[in-house]
Amino acid sequence: MNPELLHSLWVAMALMLVIEGIMPFLSPQNFKRALLQMAAMPDRQVRLIGFFCMLAGLIFLYWIN
Known about the structure:
By secondary structure, the protein is an all-alpha fold. 91% of the residues lie in helices and 0% in strands. It is extended, with a radius of gyration of 15 Å.
């Protein structure tokens, strides 16, 4: 595997962890509330949200590159 590509993947994963950690760090109560609301959703709705988030991420990635 290309070392530059591997480095980019590690950087992307590190940035993902930083972004994912912002909400629980800044507002743990709202984060817990959001998780409880998500846990009450049907699987199909959670799956659709995940799909559209991935799709939006792919479109944004394509746009910036």
